[in-house]
């Protein structure tokens, strides 16, 4: 069953940053998982602070990200997420790009065996471009700030639990997370709460398919003027379907579709979007 658990981890955790799920499993000592991922979306459906839909010029974002996980011990796992390249722009502006904010995480297994339970602490460092101005194509004097990082130090704390339904090749996970945010310049950011559930199943010994539902919402005083590009005052319900196909012992390919909507938590201060991503995986089990 250990072989299956390692595979669960690969599909449960290594997806675009906006859709990363969590599980109760940690990596076995000296095993690792590496993933290079490309994601893209476009949208003109902006949901304002009240959740009302506003038509804007088309906004697009493309990103290339690296995700890595290494088992320090059987109970302690080191994780990193590095946005190597983020490109933002409107159809009315030029596109601007830059390095994103690095996330470093330590994950500890509180319980193992039938119902693995883990807790993780993940500081996110302001390594991205805090100010990255795009220029209006029709009026060079008009500029809009589309940073590749949010400019603040924040810390995610996550509690996650999982279960394998062996001998069925089926698993389920649930998690709850709190994001303590600080400020950018003189602007204090609203803290965030996130939770989600995930189920996955293995087909043909090589293909894992999973589905996730998650929510993100603000905690504390809502900002008077929200900033969607930095995620301040943002809330939404997320639904995704993804999969990973193993190519031999070490390599794999992944694909995922993610949609943000108002099914459970109203989408606010966000572009309602459909994110598509593909990636390549290298792992040691």
Would you mind describing this structure in some detail?
The chain contains one helix and 18 strands. 4% of the residues lie in helices and 58% in strands. It has a single domain, classed as monomeric porin ompg (Porin). The chain starts with a helix and ends with a strand. It has one helix at 2-13, and strands at 32-47, 53-71, 76-90, 96-98, 103-111, 117-124, 133-135, 143-145, 154-164, 170-181, 183-184, 187-188, 191-203, 207-219, 236-247, 251-261, 270-271, 274-284. Strands 1-2-3-5-6-9-10-13-14-15-16-18 form a twelve-stranded antiparallel beta barrel. The protein has a two-stranded antiparallel sheet with strand order 7-8. The protein has 285 residues and is mostly beta strands. This is MetA-pathway of phenol degradation. It comes from Flavobacterium gillisiae.
Number of domain units: 1
Give the C-alpha Rg.
19 Å
Distance between the first and last residues' Cα = 13 Å
Compute the number of strand runs: 18
Strand content: over 45%
List the secondary-structure elements in sequence, H or E.
Answer: HEEEEEEEEEEEEEEEEEE
Shape: globular
> What portion of residues is helical?
under 10%
DSSP helix count? Answer: 1
CATH topology grouping: Porin
* Largest sheet geometry: 12 strands, antiparallel, barrel
CATH classification class: Mainly Beta
Main sheet: which strands, in order across? 1-2-3-5-6-9-10-13-14-15-16-18
Report the CATH superfamily. Answer: monomeric porin ompg
* Annotated CATH architecture: Beta Barrel
